[in-house]
Structures are given as structure tokens and as C-alpha cells.
Amino acid sequence: MSTGTGQRTAAWDERYAGAVMDTFGTPQLVLVSGHGSHVVDADGNEYLDLLGGIAVNLLGQAHPAVVHAVSGQVATLGHVSNFFATPPQVRLAEHLLQVVEPGGAPQGSRVFLANSGTEANECALKIVRAHANAGDAPRPRILALEHAFHGRSTGALALTWKAKYRDPFAPLIPGVEFVPANDVAAPDAAMGPDVAGVFVEPVQGEAGVLDLDDDFLVAARDLTTQHGALLVVDEVQSGLGRTGEWMAHHRSGIVPDVVTVAKGLGGGMPIAACIGLGGSGSVLGPGMHGTTFGGNPVCAAAANAVLDTLESDGLLAHSALLGASWRDDLKALGIPGLREVRGRGLLIGLEFDDAIAPGIVRAGRAAGFVLNATSPTTLRLAPPLVLTVDEAATFTDALPGLVLTARTQEGPVS
């Protein structure tokens, strides 16, 4: 990591404050370039990126496959409306059906391409409502999980647990109820013939990397099938190799009705998908949903390159193996107050007894690491899947010092 004067960053910060809405707060860094798992700020300082654009940059920065796909496609066809089809769009939909259900997607499965995870979940919500409204009896209720995060548009926000996100925009769409995660009895007690659908994240990333038990997912699948409701699995953060499998829910063996993916799909380009499996793929007909930029050929070309590279470079297995060994190494440090190291693949949560996670983020930034705290006590790691063993080890070696710095600067927190 080089040391700059900070003058360029300060100038950009001032311009940012004068032109960009204050929805994200003051930027931690002004980034101008990157390569692999590293990014560089406006003053020339280099960082190991262990956040990966919040689980987005599966192949890191400037990966040749993505660069080639995007530059080649934009030089050929940049955008068409959805009155027309493009080869990248069709190929991507076909590929997604293969990876979401490797054993073969049920007949009738279809894909809607969108631009973000929120939009994919809005599409899923419309599928759930339209499916319920097509039945004989009203189904006004939808179940989601405590600590869930499904997005910030008003529909997806209604499915999101945290009150500070929801309260400024109340009233949201009615009928959503929250049940505890990993309590098999909870959805059983809440389920009934008036429930239209159940939304779950196999790994609740924004909640601090909380893993759903396989038994819970199986119970949710059984209950929704029994009551004629749809099961929606949100794989926006946990899908596409992040946990060492194509989809985190594959470990449980369930087949959902709808799966949503985004974040890593485009390798940094904005693209998402709502995948209706079986009959859910035909719930939405012409005119019932749409988007101007969904399935954009440039973004679709990037997504195809990402999926191809994940396969050709064995990055799912790499994610699983590196993630497991890295978690073991972090636990073996024996850091006082590090209560738990959890997660799957390269989605890892570190839980501390005291509220030092933001301090670790700041100390890490000074030491050349991009980190993220999902709560005062929780650190989240979601690096590119191209992260190397040696790169992971540099953070492991640095963590005890970062914790000490955070505690020294902030003092004990009760």
C-alpha cells in the first residue's frame, strides 16, 4: 500500500457532497482503479478488497473475461428494447436455468432479467401475488423471516425486517408477517390457506451471515407445498458460488418455486434475475411486468462470461475450500472476544463480544484492507472468489493487530 497526501480524495469528497444525494453518508474511499482482489484510491493507496462490492465482484476487478465480453458486446449492440431478443439474453436465461437446478429445471421454468436484487425480488413478489389472486380463495398474507433483507423498493422493503429501513416509508404493502429463522415450529404455526408465499434467504448476509438450517428450509418447502403457497428463495447475496455451491439452498435439496439472483451475476455490471421454476415460470404474462434495461445485451454478455469463468476456473470448489480453511485459521487465532466465525464459502461473519466491528473496519482501511461491519459487533467478509490463499492469509495475520487497534482507540464497550 502506497501513502498519498489525501488531497485528491478530499477534493472528490467535496464534489461528491455537493452533487450526490446523501443516502450513503460520506464515502469511505474514492476508488479509481482495481485489479483482481485489489482496488486503488484517488491518492494511489492500494487495498485488498474483502468486501467485493458487497459480494458483487466475483471475479474481482478488470477480469479479462468480463472486459472482453463487455467491450466486444458494446461494440456490436449496446441496447435494444424488450420488444426484441438478443443472443446474450437468451443464452443467459438458459444458463441460469441450468445452474439453479443442475438436475434439470422443472418443465415450464422461465427467467425474468432485471437490473438489481431489489427488482428481482419485486418480480418475485408480483409472481406470489398474481398466483394467489388467480386462486379461488383470498391469500392476503406473506411470510418473511426476522432479520431478512430483500431490498429497499417499497415492495421488497415490506419483506425487510429492520425497522430503521422500513419506518420512514410506512405504510408499506400490507399482509407481510415475520417469523423467527431456524425455528421450525414458527412457520408451521403461522402457515395457513390464506398465505400466498414465504420468502427466505438461505444465508442472511445483511444480518451478519446467519445460515438457515437445512431442516428449516425443508420444513418451509413442505409447508408451502401442503398449503398451496409459493416458496421464494432469495439468493441475491448467497448464490452463484459465493457459498461454494451454485446456490446456497442446494445443500438442503429443496426445489423452490422462485429463486432470485443478482449481485455477482454481472461481475460488476448491473443485472439480476427472477427465476420461476415449474408453473411459477408462467404466472406473469404479457404486460404484467417489465423493465427498460433488464436483459441488456452488454450486461447479459458480462453475466455469461462470469458463469462460464466460474465453471472453467473451478471457482465454486475454490470458494468452498478456501472459505473452510480461512474460517479455521481465523478461529485458531484465539482472539479474545471473537465469539464466533461463521459462514459458508467466501461469505464469512466474525462475531465479537464487544462493539468493535466499525473500529476494525477503520483500522483495516488504514492497514490496506476494505472491510465491512453489518452491526457494531459483526464483521462481514465477502471477497472476490478469485482471492488467493496468500491474500486471505495477509488478513488473518493482520487481524489481531486490527482488533487491538480498534479496542485501544475506542476503549471497552459494554
3D architecture notes:
It is a single chain. With 414 residues, this protein is α/β, with parallel strands linked by helices. It contains 13 helices and 17 strands. The chain has helices at 7-19, 52-55, 64-74, 87-100, 117-133, 154-158, 163-166, 185-190, 214-227, 297-312, 315-332, 357-367, 389-410, and strands spanning 31-35, 38-41, 46-49, 110-114, 141-145, 176-179, 195-200, 203-204, 210-211, 230-234, 258-261, 272-276, 338-344, 347-352, 369-370, 372-375, 378-381. The protein is globular, with a radius of gyration of 21 Å.
Question: Would you kindly provide a brief summary of this structure?
Answer:
This protein has 414 residues and is of the alpha/beta class. The protein has 13 helices and 17 strands.
Oligomer status: single chain
- Lateral strand order in the biggest sheet: 4-12-11-10-7-5-6
Task: Report the strand count.
Answer: 17
- What structural category do the secondary elements indicate? alpha/beta
| Mean pLDDT across every amino acid position | 95
Helix content: 25-40%
Number of helices: 13
User: From N to C, what is the helix and strand string?
Assistant: HEEEHHHEHEHHEHEEEHEEEHHEEHEEEH
Radius of gyration: 21 Å
- Taken as a percent bin, the fraction of beta residues is 15-25%
Shape type: globular
The largest pleated sheet is described as: 7 strands, mixed
